[in-house]
Amino acid sequence: MTVHILCDFDGTITAEDNIIALMKAFAPPEWVELKDAILAQDISIRSGVGQLFDLLPSSERTAYRDYLVERIALRPGFTAFLADVRQNEWHFDVVSGGMDFFVQPILDGLVGSEHIFCNVADFSGETVTVAWPHACDDQCTNDCGCCKPTIARRIVDSNDRLIVIGDSVTDFEIAKRADFVYARGQLITLCEAEGIPFAPFETFHDITHHLQEVTV
Q: pTM for the complete prediction?
């Protein structure tokens, strides 16, 4: 059995959500209403995240990156988890609704760029716009932005055991298609409501220990 792990980034690999941290530090107050609408699924992720970044002036690009890269904390156990992934020859990809300008540098030296799927921030205009290189295919109508089910259809073999790791509404659609989910935060509530098999986690040590038990 081949195990293929798709792992969220913000609030999962990192201790907090980087988009939320960025908005708290740099965006005007109206970002809060947009954030709440996204989490309540009142607007699509693509629409909401696009509107959030449109609140940020492009001229502060360096400040945004430095703020996140300098303060970021990886969730405990992540590097050890990656070592375990390599030792067991599991497939591992990061699927993130975050932006390339902070996801890539934070994961540099840990995860190869060919295994990182995220959105792309465009700083060429007055405010930040978002390119969506992994938008929904014709099998998804949720306007996900970074569509994790679409990515899975491209890179996960149908015979693989799909493991999803995440924390939020952005992971819900791919969680529905997983063989098993490791969940934090809002994703726990969504998995419970949908009857999706999952285990809660606080650190990647929790996941490593559990995976060793269920994949033997």
A: 0.92
